[in-house]
C-alpha cells in the first residue's frame, strides 16, 4: 500500500498533519488531545509514527530562549513538511534533543497550553 | 466509588490544591537537576544483570539438554534464571525505558524510541495503550482501558452483566496468559465489536501483533528447543514456565497498582478542566503502592511506588523510593490518603474486588474507604455533592479552544 504522504506528495497536495486539524501547521490549528498523545505515546506530531532519536522541536526564538515549545515533537525529516505547510512561521528555529519533559499548564499560567522542554539538547 | 470532584472529595481549597502542585513541581525540578551519572550507572547495571541472567538461563537449559546432566534441578534453575531475566526486562527496564525515563542519557539503545521488549505486545502499541491512554486518563471510568482490561468489572459504577459471574475464571486466565492479553490490549476489542475501530488502523495493529507474537513464539518455542537437540521438550517446557512466571508476576504487580481498597475511580467530569495540580491530585488518589525491600521494588519495576510513578512517569525509576518519602509527607500534611500496604494485602484486596464485583451490587457491600476528613474542617457541614450546573462551573476549556483563551 502506498503511504498517504507519498500520494499527497505526488499529487502536489499537503498531507494532513497528525497533531493539527488538516494540513495547516499553524499553532492555532493544533488539536490539544493529539499534542498530549504525541507527548506520552512518543510519536511524531506530523506523521503520527513513533519518534526516533534525536527528537526535533520547532519554535520561535522566544520558545528557543525559554526552552519551552508548544508544537509537538517531530522526526527530523518531518520538520520540513511542517515548515512547508500553510500557517508555518518562516522564523521558526529547530532544536534537536534526546529527551524532553512534558509540562501541563498550571492554574496561574497565563498561557494555558502544555509545553515541551528538551532536557538533553543536541543541536540548533 | 467514583469521584466527580477531587477537590470536594478531599476537602481542599483551590489554593491548597495549587500549593500541593507547587510542592510536587519542586520535587520534580530537584530530581531533574540532580539526574546524572549515578542514575545512568544504575540502568546500565540493571541491563547487564538482566542479560547475564538470560544468558545463564539459556546456557543452563542448553547444557542440560546436550549433556543430560543436572536433571530436574538444572531444569528448574534454567527456568528460574530465564523467568527472572524476563521479569527484570519487562518491569524495571522495558516499561521504564519506554516511558522515556532514560532518554536524557542520549544512549542509542536505552531510549524510548528504540527499545523493543521481551513480550508479545509491540512497543509502539504499549506506548499508546499504557503511556497515553492509561497515564493520561488514570482510573477514569470509560476512558482508562486498564480498568479490568475490558474483561473484568472492577468498579461498582460499571454495569453488571450475567457474564461477570465468570470473573474469577477470566481473572485466572488473564493472569496466566497476561502477555497475550496485553498484546491485544491496544486493539480495543470493545470498539472493534461496536464497529467503531478504523479498519485500516486495526489491520496495521494486527500485522504488528502477529509479527511480534510470531517472533516471540519462534524464539522461545522453536529456535531454543531446536538448539537443544533430542531434549528439546525440556527446553520448551522451561521456556513456557519462565513465560508463565513472568505473566503471573507482572499481572500481580499491575493489579496492585490501581485495584486495592483506597485507589479511587473518577468520572469524566473530573478531567474536564483539570489543571496540572488537579492532575497530580488525581494520580495520588487513583494509585496504590505496596511495601517491600529494594529487591522486591527492582523486580516490580519500582511499581511498588505506583503513586510516585503516576506523578512522574518519566523520572528515573531508581529515584521513586527517594521521592516517595516527600510525597508521603506531603499527603500527611494535607490529610490526603496515601494508599499502601504489604504486597499480599494489596493483591488480596484486588482479588476480593474481582470476586465481589462478579455479583450484582445489591448482593455485596462496598469496600471503599470513607472520604478523608481534615482535622481543621471536621466540624464543618459537608459540602453538597450534587452535580454542578454549567453556570457554577468555570468555563469549559476544550482541548483546542482553551489554548487561545486566557486563564479562567
- Termini Cα gap of chain A: 36 Å
What count of helical segments of chain A does DSSP give? Answer: 4
Question: What is the alpha-carbon Rg of chain A in Å?
Answer: 14 Å
Mean pLDDT of chain A: 88
What's the helical proportion of residues of chain A?
A: 10-25%
Oligomer: heterodimer
Number of domains of chain B: 1
Q: Number of DSSP helices of chain B?
A: 15
Keywords:
heterodimer; A: 124 residues; alpha+beta; three-stranded antiparallel β-sheet; two-stranded antiparallel sheet; 4 helices; globular; B: 408 residues; mainly alpha; two-stranded parallel sheet; 15 helices; 2 strands; 1% strand; disordered C terminus
Summarize the structure.
Chain A is an alpha+beta fold and 124 residues long.
Walk me through the structure.
The complex is a heterodimer of chains A (124) and B (408). Chain A is built from four helices and five strands, in the order ααβααββββ. Chain A is α+β, with helices and mostly antiparallel strands and 124 residues long. Residues 9-13 of chain A have low confidence and may be disordered. A three-stranded antiparallel beta sheet of chain A has the order 1-2-5. A two-stranded antiparallel sheet of chain A has the order 3-4. Chain B has 408 residues and is mainly α. Chain B has one domain. A two-stranded parallel ribbon of chain B has the order 1-2. In chain B, helix 2 (14-34) runs antiparallel to helix 14 (320-333) and helix 4 (71-98) packs across helix 10. Mean pLDDT of chain B is 89; it is low at 380-408. The interface between A and B is large, with 36 and 39 residues.
What topology does this entry show?
The complex is a heterodimer of chains A (124) and B (408).
Chain A: H1 4-11, H2 32-41, E1 55-59, H3 61-66, H4 79-83, E2 93-97, E3 100-103, E4 115-118, E5 121-123
Chain B: E1 2-3, H1 6-10, H2 14-34, H3 37-67, H4 71-98, H5 123-136, H6 167-176, H7 178-183, H8 189-193, H9 199-227, H10 232-258, E2 265-266, H11 276-286, H12 294-299, H13 306-311, H14 320-333, H15 343-356
Parallel strand pairs in B: 1-2
